[in-house]
């Protein structure tokens, strides 16, 4: 599941030596800040830096050379290339790869058939956070108990639906524009059209009704992302039966909305809709809500995010048929038992949101031209994100990142994968440690996690023969949380007592999405608990929740005399 930093679904997904380049932009000291997987340039910060000579280096390339090729030559790789790297898809993953490629001196092009920014910027992470910012403010203002505890008096809070929708849309437009401008400024060629692989190291692109252009590249990255998954039997009309794409436009706030799926997407929208006055009914196929979370965190989250709010739920059921509202009739949802398949219930609601995860957008990529067949729509790749063909051989110079490969459907995971691929094609072997990539659900309060859940850790321990330790700390013991009157929360550490390895960290509480990165970076760098215990945290801050968490763990191994342990694992 994921945050509505969408590229992640309600259910988690499964995942050459550079010899010549044409530098587009010489950057001596690149700065790699990222925001929700977005490079800093998306927020209007300059990506240009000064070289040691004090001069700023720009790219002054014009349009790429158009190369014609007959269908008969598609089976052979070209002898010379228009680009060092072509990326198909300009979402967060493609954007991260493109900018890192430029920093590495690669002549780079990115092909986009829709709009720059992909799901995250236009229909996911960015606009959803705008809506959730509103829901968070509304919850505070609506909580008389919370306000009184702080000594505040507030009159009845209200909202303007169109104003809220405009806030989300304007933010997406701003980030999309900054993203586009950042790539142009750094010399990335943005080629407009639908990209299709026509042979080894060869891609065609173009718009409907216009001739196709063919370009070649030493390396190609597929970064086409995903689309909302809609199960059979569900009729989406975009008005009363909607996906997250429609919901983010906030064209209406229904009195009663059913949300099919209780993963990240469903949870975040339940937070928005209930804050704005809707009643919500969850429909979940599994026997418990929030099935992708650590069970202990899920139970606490249900007690805080579900039970006190205007939310009811049906678990262990499938929505086999959903009919949009029409002719004065409501939306009709037919439910069956997930196990017996017997009819269970029929619901009549004002609207239904389909939040059953996302499906890879890989149709029409031309994978058959390089002997590749998708698996449930996902492009098969190895641990280095190299594409695998039907004979289980690697396709030379072809990579796939992000939602399209299904390894981890999160925007920032796609960006990290893109950077990893660029490292490889410029001569540095690099394997991304996906267990070090954090995830977050931006409800109020937030949920975040990295690594294994407790059941996953215990299963691994049983197979490999080690013990599992669990440590917990409460937000109720944190000064900053109490000052904010936000003491509801828990942090949980899953680790190996024998050597101090961090297996997983799960947080539910105020700013959990921000707090998780200390743990994810520790996993990425191979830092052990016995070493991180010596880290100093400012007081009073929420970061002390993690400080107390690590200090409460019992580890048999001694601290390193030389500082943090570093293992050969990179993010």
Strand percentage: 15-25%
Count the E strands. 25
What is the CATH superfamily classification of the largest domain?
A: FAD/NAD(P)-binding domain
Number of domains as seen in the coordinates: 3
Summarize the biggest pleated sheet: 8 strands, mixed
CATH topology title of the largest domain: FAD/NAD(P)-binding domain
- Rg over CA atoms: 25 Å
Distance between the termini: 20 Å
Q: State the low-pLDDT regions, or none.
A: 1-74, 561-571
Which architecture of the largest domain would the CATH scheme give at its second level? Answer: 3-Layer(bba) Sandwich
Q: Please state the structural category.
A: alpha/beta
Global morphology: globular
* Helicity, as a percent range: 25-40%
Draw up the topology in text:
Blueprint: E1 34-35, E2 38-39, E3 83-88, H1 92-103, E4 108-112, H2 118-123, H3 125-142, H4 144-149, H5 161-185, E5 189-192, E6 194-199, E7 202-206, E8 213-222, E9 226-228, E10 241-243, H6 244-247, E11 256-260, H7 264-275, E12 279-284, H8 295-306, E13 311-315, E14 317-323, E15 331-337, E16 343-349, E17 351-354, E18 358-360, E19 386-388, E20 394-400, H9 411-425, E21 439-441, E22 446-451, H10 454-464, E23 469-474, H11 479-483, E24 490-495, E25 502-509, H12 512-525, H13 529-532, H14 544-551
Parallel strand pairs: 3-4, 3-8, 4-5, 8-20, 10-17, 11-12, 11-17, 12-13
Antiparallel strand pairs: 1-2, 6-7, 7-8, 9-18, 14-15, 15-16, 19-20, 21-22, 22-25, 23-24, 24-25
Helix pairs in contact: 1-9, 3-5, 3-7
Pfam family, one: Pyr_redox_2
Subcellular location: Plastid, Chloroplast stroma
GO molecular function, one term: flavin adenine dinucleotide binding
